[in-house]
Structure formats: structure tokens, C-alpha cells
Amino acid sequence: MESNFPTAEELVAALRAGDVSSVELTDEAIARIERDDKTINAICVPDFDRARAAARDADRARARGEDLALLGIPVTVKESYDVAGLPTTWGIPAYRNHLPAEDAVQVSRLKSAGAVVLGKTNVPLGLQDIQSFNEIYGTTNNPWDPTRTPGGSSGGSAAALAAGFGALSIGSDIAGSLRTPAHFCGIHAHKPSLGLLASRGMVPPPGPALPADQDLAVVGPMARSARDLTLLLDVMAGPDPLTHGVAYDMRLPPPRHQRLGDFRVLVVEDHPRIASGVAVRAAVNRVADALTEGGARVERHSALLPDLGEAATIYMQLLVSNSAARFPMEAYEQVRARVAGLSADDDSLEAARLRGVVLSHRDWVGLNGRRELHRHAWRRLFAEFDVVVCPVTPTPAFPHDHHPNPMERRIDVDGVAFPYFDQLVWAGLATMPGLPATAVPAGLSPEGLPVGVQLIGPMFEDRTPLRLAELLEETMSQSRAQH
């Protein structure tokens, strides 16, 4: 598969130099979509006429001397973001004709920065899967192997980037929905610190676009390079002007270090709840070797690391309680009956998920208190380390699995079957405490599939894992060139 598409940073430089126009870049991206997306099915809602008009406007603006961060750059947007005049369905058939009247705050920020929106990318039903398929738009395939998923729920965006359909995209993440598709498709993505980016207009239909604070869920940038992540994060970052933005300005601290040799890194490849596959272990070790060769201080164990098993249990209950609040009463009562039949000593993740469905507010408050203890443990750890390197999921992209009951699906880790949703424990490691995490490519599996890792950083120090991602990209590119 072709994978040497130019980065947004390179395209910005070419536009500034007059080597190419936005109209040319947009027409090229549209032509590639029309040629290749029949196989991939990443772009579920094209908006080509308005994209061409925006590209012409961008070229005229540049001719007048304007120079915005993304002026004339073709981008895509996850289907779950409101774009005025385009459907926002979240893959739910009942809302196939839901047309929001205004752009989501992040779509507005893209357009204000001069980006050209090519269209919207596919998602799973209700954004509630590790794959990307629904009755309205069908199945999105992985560009590296169409028999496999690109991940979810930002799978359409990751597949679009991997296939060269625009230079940037925006997605969202509550259960690895930015990081898992990046890992499966060989691109970069950044899950920002909880609360750093405004999410208004990224709401299930037909709900109003309110500036509500979300628990666990974030929106974030996706790109083909680490530097592009920083470029796009700077466009997206900042409080909602309707709430915190009334009183606060955002100023992210700089990265803790600029040189690779100054970083202190903890590498973690084992999780007590699920095995890590051979291909994923190899990727983690490739990154660890590159860090060591670059002079970073790399350690494999620390007593400061919070209990991963407890973290997974807390995360699963918080995650499920978040989505189950909208369950129909009949479904809720069915789960409550199952929970009543659980053994008191059943500490499986499946039991945690079931208990999360019927979690009382009193129990949620207690669970949130345990989360705060984990957050404090992470603060202590990040006094000794700058970044934690670990898997995104236990495997590379897996074959499509559309079994109608996700609870009956299994994930195969080197021949051993685990419950499908247990693979979320690595994503939850950063999500539960609200930490920033950058997904970066780390080579290919023996089958030729992309494999990535995530770099978890300190709360609101997003530039630290992003800077390490940039340095890793440079180091590993040089190493591949030498070999």
C-alpha cells in the first residue's frame, strides 16, 4: 500500500511557496477518493462541491496575503461532528436525515484556520464499537488489508488518512477511538487531556449542541505525522467560548525536554487482564530500543505504576455507566437481573461491565474517589518519569466481526480467545485518569499489518508525549533508512 503521502506541514510549505494551489490539492484528494474509496469506504458523506469552493476561496485569500495555519489544506471530519448542511447520524438509522443547522465548535475552528473540509468519515453504530460499520453507510475496510477492520470509532478517519484522503482528520476517544484506529492503520493520533478541547457539536442526534463537560470522552487530532498532530492540536485546543472560555485562556506548558536523550521513559508491555500479542510486544520493544539508542533513560518496572488490574476494573465500570444511562428500561432490568446472579467474588472485566450498567450514583461517587487515588498515583509517577510507553491494544487489526451481540465476540491473541471488550484495557489506562496519550506507528507485523504504541504523558502536559512522538518518528525513520 502507498504510504508516503505528504504531511500537512509539507503541504503548507508548498502552498506558501506557490508550488501548488489549494484547488490542485483538493482536486487530487477528491480524485483519489473517487478512485480508491470504493474498496475502503471511509468517506461516508462527501462534500466535494463545497470543498472545491472553499479551496478557491483559500487560493484567493493567499493571493491577498493571508496566511492561516491550515489555509487550503484538505481535511476530513468524523461523521459524529456536526457540519451544517450535512447529516449527523452516528450510524443510527432513525437519524439518517438529521441535518444540524450549525458547525461543531471544532469544525468551526478547522474552517477558521483555513482548512478545506472534503467530507465526513464513517463510524460504528452509536460510536460503540472497535470497528466502523453501520446500516446507513456500510463497512469501512482497513487500507492495508480490506478483510480487516480499521478500528473504531474513528475508523473512517484513520482509513482516510492511511489512504491519502486528505492530510488531517479529527476524531474522538472514550475507549481508544482515536488511538486504536491509528494503531490499526499506521497513522498518528492524540488523545488529549480530559477537558482540554471543547467538544460542543459532537453529540448524539437529535440532541442539542450544548457545551457540556464530558466524563472520559475527548475529541482530538489525527494525522500522518507527529508534527502534524501538534499543528492540528494548536488549532483545536482551548475552552468553549460559551463556558470556560468566558474567563480563561489556554496556555499549554512546553514539552519537558527537546532532546531524546533527556527523556525518562517507563516501558510497560504486560497487563494482568489480557495477554499482549507477539507483534505488539515486538513493536513496544522496537520503540524501547530506539529510545535507548537515542540516549533516553528507559526502565521496565516501577513501584510507582498504579495497579493496572484495579485501573481496568474502575475504567470498565465508569465507561459502561456512561453509555448505559441511555439504555431502554427493559434492557436495564435484564442486566440488573444478571448482576443479581453474579458471584460476589467475580472480579472479571465482564462482571465489571455488567455492574457498571446498574451502577447507582452513590456507587459512582465511590468509584470516582478511587479514580482520584489513581490520578494522584500518576502524579507521583510523572515526578520520576516523563512518558509511559505501552500497547494500544493487544493485537494488530483483526478481521471484521459483525456478530450482532458484541458480548459473544472474542479477540484472538496469538491463539488464545479473550472477551471482545477486554482489549480496551490499554486504552483505559490513559482514559480513566484523563491523561494525554499519543499513538504512534512502530513498524509492521510479520503479516504486514501496522502496529503502534501509545505514549502516555502527565495531565495537561500534552506537548511532552507529542514531542517524544516527533523525536521517535525522526529516529525510527533514520534507522529504517540505514537498514
TrEMBL record:
InterPro entries: Amidase_CS (IPR020556), Amidase_dom (IPR023631), AS_sf (IPR036928), FAAH2 (IPR052739). Gene3D superfamilies: Amidase signature (AS) domain. Residues 24-464 form the Amidase domain. It holds the Pfam family Amidase. One of its GO terms (cellular component) is endomembrane system. This is Amidase.
